[in-house]
Write a structure and sequence with these properties.
2 copies of one chain form a homodimer.
Chain A: H1 3-12, H2 17-26, E1 31-32, H3 33-40, H4 44-56, E2 60-65, E3 68-73, H5 76-93
Antiparallel strand pairs in A: 1-3, 2-3
Helix pairs in contact in A: 3-4
Chain A binds a DNA duplex through helix 4.
DNA sequence: TGAAAATATGAATAATTGTTCATATATTGA
DNA sequence: TCAATATATGAACAATTATTCATATTTTCA
């Protein structure tokens, strides 16, 4: 498969407000599905749907503890990309 | 405006095959609209439409030379984000 | 000045994608 | 095992967005 196509697919996962908010929340550590929904004021099913997308794309990884599922960022790259983008737009705003 | 919303909007620009291919092409320097269309085998109007999006979002900047318009990446962050994403997916593939 | 070349734009269509609502699955503890 | 809790999933709908096609601008040069 074309790597540029894969790259654009990869960036799509960052290109949604709900997912970016989830990623932002997970920057500080693992959080359960219900806690994500509560803290971000989202419906549980919205969170589950988006978590599945993020999980499938290897942006987050799940850990089961009893009947709860805790999600965390998959690796350092995710935070790095998040922060590079953030730096860019803050830089642009500062002008 | 919420900075997380802006950030997701920003990443959206990378989340399209046509735009990623344009960004990739511009990594090696400025290119005219027709040359972009020709090298990427795209219709001219597709390129113009996407360039307007990229220009509005400050991802690329135009320079007029006669009747030609040359486009280049706006700043280093664009290439940095591109490469960080690329590194990530190549890293994932390597596993 | 007028034609040709290069780029930009507008409207319509097609395709993708996020959310909603209902329901299914899985785990724990009584 | 049964009820309660936590999470996941499926289908339908709504909204967003990329592409297409036609046409409008802008600039150069004969």
């Amino acid at each position: 498969m074309d790597v540029l196509f894969e790259l654009s697919e990869f960036f799509k996962f960052f290109g949604d407000t709900t997912r970016i908010r989830i990623i932002h929340l997970l920057l500080s550590g693992e959080v359960s599905v219900n806690d994500i929904a509560e803290k971000l004021n989202l419906e549980q099913s919205v969170v589950s749907h988006q978590l599945r997308i993020l999980r499938t794309a290897n942006l987050v990884k799940p850990r089961r503890d009893g009947r709860k599922m805790f999600y965390s960022l998959d690796d350092e790259h995710i935070g790095l990309i998040f922060n590079t983008g953030l730096t860019h737009i803050l830089h642009k705003k500062g002008k």
